[in-house]
């Protein structure tokens, strides 16, 4: 772990912009027997141009919260409390929970887009890259002419470092890293103000992961969108994020600047996460999450 490579992280604080997305006391429940409280009173604020990391072990509620922010929850999941407000660049505040129909469709992808967990396998195997990118514009920009769609699709692939000649390719003809870049291009298609990225480098080898991360950082700096980056890899978040929120058993137990999380973690679980990655030297330890180890938080 070498977080000191990030000029926005532990080397110094960044000046945060105005809020772009605010979630207050969000609770989400899976209505099964017995009910499962997947997210409990979670509150986060994402600022313009910021990378907010959301970390925690598998099953802690990270993806469920992300789906709630983007109104993608499906039965049996139900948001049972809280509010989500999108602060549009136009100055309008949008009550995300109250959206439906056309207003909800315009919010998704246009205002907030998402790169899904395992998204590199989410492309339709029988449709070309061109067709899948063009469908975004056919749905959300129906007045766009065919030549404009073609030009924009080529521009998007170039933006993420893929040769536009690959527009004619099918997903099985692309490497895992290229498929992931196509999915990022799709998420960028409508110039969203927020991108939610749910473990976008999962299942990629380390070299390809680094390339994808560099591309995300470059695009964020160039286009100015804010990012919620979800992963269980806390050292990665310390390296790339401006701020980090730690999630445990459906609750956000600690939030702070990357430097604060790295130098002086306040919650026992955060300290356990930081110490769970093996050192090159010293004895091997076990990550044991018990009530005593967590200070009763587990």
List the helices and strands and how they pair.
Elements lengths: L18 E12 L5 E12 L3 E5 L6 H8 L7 E11 L5 E3 L5 H7 L4 E4 L13 H12 L5 H14 L16 H13 L5 E5 L7 H18 L2 E6 L2 H7 L2 E6 L2 E7 H6 L4 H8 L23
Parallel strand pairs: 3-8, 3-9, 6-7, 7-8
Antiparallel strand pairs: 1-2, 1-4, 4-5, 9-10
Description of the molecule:
This protein is of the alpha/beta class and 298 residues long. It has 2 domains: 1-111 and 192-298, 3-Layer(aba) Sandwich (Rossmann fold), CATH 3.40.50; 122-191, no CATH class. The chain has 9 helices and 10 strands. The strands form 2 sheets. The protein has a 6-stranded mixed sheet with strand order 6-7-8-3-9-10, sandwiched between helices. Strands 2-1-4-5 form a 4-stranded antiparallel sheet, covered by helices on one side. It starts with 18 loop residues before the first strand and ends in a 23-residue tail after the last helix. The model is unreliable at 1-14 (pLDDT under 50).
Rg, nearest Å: 20 Å
**Count of separate DSSP helical elements:** 9
Q: How many E strands?
A: 10
User: Which bin fits the share of residues in helices?
Assistant: 25-40%
Mean pLDDT across the residues is: 88
CATH architecture of the largest domain: 3-Layer(aba) Sandwich
Q: Structural class of the helices, strands and pairings?
A: alpha/beta
Low-confidence stretches: 1-14
Portion in strands: 15-25%
CATH topology title of the largest domain: Rossmann fold
How many discrete domains? 2
Any idea what the shape is? globular
**CATH class descriptor name of the largest domain:** Alpha Beta
Distance between the termini: 26 Å
* CATH superfamily placement of the largest domain: P-loop containing nucleotide triphosphate hydrolases
The largest sheet, given as strand count, sense and whether it forms a barrel, is: 6 strands, mixed
């Amino acid at each position: 772990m070498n977080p000191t490579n990030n000029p926005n992280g532990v080397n110094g604080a960044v000046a945060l912009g105005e809020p772009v997305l605010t979630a207050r006391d969000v609770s989400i429940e899976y209505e099964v027997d017995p009910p499962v409280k997947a997210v409990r009173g979670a509150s986060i604020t994402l600022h313009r141009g910021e990378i907010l990391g959301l970390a925690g072990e598998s099953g802690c509620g990270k993806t469920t919260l992300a789906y709630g922010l983007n109104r993608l929850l499906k039965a049996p999941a139900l948001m049972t409390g809280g509010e989500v407000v999108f602060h549009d660049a136009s100055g309008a505040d949008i009550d995300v929970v109250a959206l439906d129909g056309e207003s909800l469709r315009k919010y998704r992808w246009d205002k907030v887009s998402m790169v899904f967990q395992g998204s590199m396998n989410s492309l339709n195997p029988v449709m070309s890259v061109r067709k899948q990118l063009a469908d975004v514009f056919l749905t959300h920009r129906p007045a766009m002419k065919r030549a404009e769609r073609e030009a924009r699709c080529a521009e998007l692939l170039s933006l993420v470092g893929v040769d536009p000649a690959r527009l004619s390719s099918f997903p099985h003809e692309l490497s895992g890293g290229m498929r992931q870049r196509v999915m990022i291009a799709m998420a960028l298609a409508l110039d969203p103000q927020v991108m939610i990225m749910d473990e976008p480098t999962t299942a990629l080898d380390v070299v390809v992961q680094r390339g994808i991360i560099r591309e995300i950082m470059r695009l964020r700096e160039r286009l100015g969108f804010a990012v919620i980056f979800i992963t269980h890899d806390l050292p990665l978040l310390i390296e790339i994020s401006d701020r980090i929120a730690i999630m445990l058993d459906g609750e956000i137990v600690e939030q702070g600047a990357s430097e604060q999380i790295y130098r002086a973690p306040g919650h026992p679980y955060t300290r356990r996460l930081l110490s769970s990655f093996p050192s090159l030297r010293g004895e091997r330890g076990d990550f044991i999450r018990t009530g005593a180890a967590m200070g009763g938080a587990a």
